[in-house]
Write a structure and sequence with these properties.
With about 180 residues, the protein is mainly β. The protein has a domain of about 120 residues. It contains one helix and eight strands. The longest helix is centred in the N-terminal third of the chain and has 18 residues. About 15% of the residues are buried.
């Protein structure tokens, strides 16, 4: 009987430990998604900022981000956007070709499948040189950064941190041998 009670107690403790998880901060909602687009015919790559729920046309594609999330500075970098991409066909019809999550760290994971254009997420940001669209609710994002921690340096890309580089150990010097 003692063996059975011990086994049940150990099982309960293990189940409790499995249920524990590390505390994670909530992702930060950003008002602007930064995309890159490739025209495969000309080889031209451009970067463009799109406000949440705004639609921007790149070639024959219309890109609409619905939410753009980044992790706080205390977490591992992870930048993602839920976006919809429509194609304007030659007969002027609009056809949805992509709906889903895009990740800046893995642009090929959920790629837009189009023969002429590629579109991928580069970053999410809180400010842009592009004016917001009419009716954009800037107050929704006003309290996102009370400490000024989201400010990113120029050239910052929402990619995972590189693994630390370990230098090779210095060569072992052989002691000089004195011959008689």
């Amino acid at each position: 009987m003692v063996f059975r009670a011990t086994r049940i107690t150990i099982g309960a403790v293990c189940a409790g430990l499995i249920g524990l998880s590390t505390a994670q901060a909530d992702p930060i909602e950003n008002p602007i998604a930064v995309f890159s687009g490739l025209d495969k015919v000309t080889g031209r790559i451009i970067s463009f900022d799109v406000y949440i729920n705004e639609t921007v046309q790149f070639g024959a594609l219309r890109v609409t981000p619905r939410t753009c999330l980044t992790q706080p500075p205390t977490e591992e970098p992870n930048t993602m956007v839920f976006a919809e991409v429509d194609e304007i066909t030659l007969d002027s019809h609009i056809r949805r070709i992509f709906t889903g999550w895009m990740f800046a760290a893995s642009p090929g994971l959920n790629a837009v499948d189009h023969p002429v254009y590629d579109v991928w997420l580069k970053d999410c940001t809180v400010s842009s040189d592009v004016a917001p669209p009419p009716g954009f609710d800037e107050e929704k994002y006003a309290d996102q950064d009370p400490l000024g921690l989201i400010e990113r340096p120029d050239g910052w890309i929402g990619m995972p941190r590189p693994k630390p580089f370990r230098e090779a150990p210095p060569p072992v010097e052989e002691p000089d041998v004195i011959e008689d």
